[in-house]
Design goal:
The chain is an alpha/beta fold. It has two domains: 32-140, Chitobiase, domain 2 (2-Layer Sandwich), CATH 3.30.379; 146-508, TIM Barrel, CATH 3.20.20. Helices cover 34% and strands 17% of the residues. The protein has helices at 2-14, 54-68, 110-123, 160-172, 197-200, 229-241, 257-262, 291-307, 323-326, 329-338, 343-360, 404-413, 422-425, 447-452, 462-466, 483-490, 493-502, 510-515, 518-526; strands at residues 33-41, 45-48, 72-74, 80-84, 94-99, 102-107, 125-127, 130-140, 146-152, 177-181, 183-184, 187-188, 245-249, 312-314, 364-368, 396-399, 416-419, 468-475. The chain is elongated and about 80 Å long.
Length: 541
């Protein structure tokens, strides 16, 4: 049954692809591969490794036991070696050698060796009851240093078990950054001990809007959930062992409704609000003119930085509705005192204020491209003019709007850029327009389109190209309340973004990519992450 299902999935993914023979089926595809005649019989594993690679050795032991029933023995001489080698130039690079003497995985860091293990596990096959591995020499390193997956827990809390499962799959795909969207209008999902109402009130909403933004239909079910600081520490530690950095996102100054519902004095009006049950951009924004609000946000960031060792802290900074600032006498007075001429400039002042605070703590601020001050609200009808202030020079900018002129301008200014153009990288967009239960107005993102994305747009100088440090794919939480819905949108699409982040663009090939999905499709079916229904197979039979 599984083979039959896999064959159907291949037809769905590949369409009318002509069958070809690929030398190796690996995702993401390595950047230099030499295949030699013959296979190494791998019926037992005597593993040699230094103490510095114990984490990687333990990982290998677990995967060989779970996937092939092999028990690894730690010996001084054996048929498999994990080695640290200074000559490998890239910190995430590795060399994997399989020949008559056995298997050797080398890296200049434990992270490089770990990625070699992810390639190695995909090479293992069974032939006539014998486990074997082809003779190869693979020299590999990533195209980009930032390869992220973002989970929006703010709108749809998922929980620690699901996060760990996502981290497991990210590791196999060689993704190295888990971008964790923890606060939103519709929910605050991180325990802050100094402000307990953030989770006592802000983590709960009475109901959830269904179908689409204009819908008047709600599920009528209370929705809540948040991560304790103990749980967050456990997740961060779990990710660290998988060589994944967890980057928290704490939205400011917009997307603040849940926090303001908990502490109304944070808002720019006297109105007391509840945590919204509807989606879409809300009017609520932090009153950044009030020193109490700025102290609150710094207190929150202090606790966040205690939990997350990541050098980068994401502040969101997108989709800030500025009407409340414009209508507030307190905010207008503050702007006059500071010589700030517009709400857009106020947002830039605040953004740089937070950037300076993070820098004083040894951290770097990251935000969506709105933080540059260029064409704030450009996605809406009421376009805000450019802000006059210059963004802090060490900020990292995550581009989501797809405006190449703005991206080029930011690169020219010297900002590091992560490209997350929504028309290619948003996993929550319907992929085929026929998935049951989803009513998206946006253009669908089929697998081939997702795979075709190049984070470096045409027309950039060589120096500007160097400013683009990677790609991020995003799983936003609107309309995705259930874990099964999330799986339907993520699998297998994020594999395309993983390969874009790792494999040199000149070596990408969609036909080869599709043929190489056997290992992952089998794994994801076994774990019930996908089936013929949740990626639309039935409609294509």
């Amino acid at each position: 049954m599984k083979r039959f299902l896999l064959s159907i999935i291949y037809l769905y993914l590949a369409g009318m692809l002509v069958a070809q023979t690929a030398p190796l089926e690996i995702l993401p595809y390595p950047n230099e591969v030499k295949v030699h005649p013959g296979h190494y019989p791998f019926m037992s594993c005597q593993l040699v490794y230094p103490n510095a690679l114990k984490n990687e050795a333990d990982y290998l032991k677990q995967l060989l036991l779970e996937e092939h029933g092999l028990i690894v023995q730690h010996t001084k001489q054996g048929n498999m070696q994990l080695t640290l080698s200074k000559w490998i130039p890239h910190p995430e690079g590795y060399r994997l050698t399989v020949n008559e003497q056995g298997i050797r995985i080398e890296g200049s860091t434990p992270q490089g060796v770990f990625y070699g293990l992810q390639t190695f596990r995909q090479l293992i096959t069974t032939h006539q009851g014998q486990i074997r591995i082809p003779y190869v020499v693979i020299d590999d390193a990533p195209a980009f240093k930032w390869r992220s997956f973002m989970l929006d827990d703010g709108r749809a809390f998922k929980g620690m078990k699901e996060v760990k499962q996502l981290l497991d799959e990210m590791a196999i795909l060689k993704m190295n950054t888990f971008h964790w969207h923890l606060t939103e209008d519709q929910g605050w999902r991180i325990e802050i001990k100094k402000y307990p109402l953030l989770t006592e009130i802000g983590a709960h909403r009475d109901s959830t809007q269904l179908n689409w933004y204009e819908s008047k239909v709600f599920d009528g079910k209370p929705f809540d959930g948040y991560y304790t600081q103990r749980e967050i520490k456990e997740i961060v530690s779990y990710a660290r062992n998988l060589h994944i950095t967890v980057v928290p996102e704490i939205e400011m100054p917009g997307h603040a409704s849940a926090a303001i519902a908990a502490y109304p004095w944070l808002g720019s009006t006297d109105e007391k609000i509840k945590v919204p049950c509807t989606f879409g951009v809300k009017n609520s924004a932090f009153n950044v003119a009030d020193p109490r609000t700025r102290t609150f946000l710094k207190d929150v960031l202090d606790e966040v930085m205690e939990l997350f060792p990541s050098r980068i802290i994401h502040i969101g900074g997108d989709e800030v509705r500025q009407e409340q600032w414009n209508n507030s006498s307190e905010v207008r007075t503050f702007m006059k005192e500071k010589g700030i001429n517009s709400a857009a400039e106020l947002q830039m002042w605040f953004t740089n204020h937070i950037a300076s605070y993070l820098k004083s703590k040894g951290r770097i601020m990251m935000g969506w491209n709105d933080i540059t001050g260029d064409k704030l609200h450009g996605y809406q009808s009421e376009v805000t003019i450019e802000a006059g202030n210059q963004l802090s020079e060490d900020a990292v900018v995550q581009f989501w709007t797809g405006n190449h002129d703005l991206l080029r301008k930011a690169a020219k200014r010297g900002y590091k850029i992560v490209n997350s153009y929504f028309k290619y990288t948003y996993l929550n967009f319907n992929h085929d327009r026929i998935t049951p239960g989803l009513e998206y107005d946006f253009e669908p993102i089929p697998l081939e389109k997702a795979y075709a994305f190049n984070p470096i747009p045409e027309g950039l100088t060589m120096q500007e190209q160097k400013q683009i440090i990677g790609i991020g794919c995003q799983m936003w939480g609107e309309w995705i309340p259930q874990v099964e819905d999330m799986y339907r949108m993520i699998y297998p699409y994020w594999a395309a973004h993983a390969e874009t982040g790792w494999t040199d663009n000149k070596r990408k090939n969609y036909n080869r990519f599709v043929r190489s999905m056997d290992y992952f499709l089998t794994r994801w079916i076994d774990k019930n992450y996908i089936n013929s229904h949740n990626i639309g197979i039935k409609q294509h039979q």
